[in-house]
Design goal:
14% strand; alpha+beta; globular
Length: 66
């Protein structure tokens, strides 16, 4: 039971990746960033986000970065 990963909030992810909320929303909408809608809130698994970044998901290929 102690290996269960908790869901992370938008605030946690923006802090973890040091990017804005707008950047995260663009990544969700345009780059298939792994995120899950829980009610009106976006929730994230840091392990999924890390894997997405490692696979090149956050690479700046469409000019979305600020």
């Amino acid at each position: 039971m102690d290996n269960i990963e908790k869901w992370s909030s938008m605030a946690t992810i923006t802090d973890y990746l040091d990017v804005s909320r707008e950047t995260i929303l663009q990544w969700i909408n345009h780059r298939n960033m792994p995120a899950h809608k829980v009610g009106r809130l976006w929730k994230f698994k840091i392990s999924e986000v890390d894997e997405w970044i490692r696979s090149g998901g956050a690479a700046d290929k469409t000019g979305l970065e600020k």
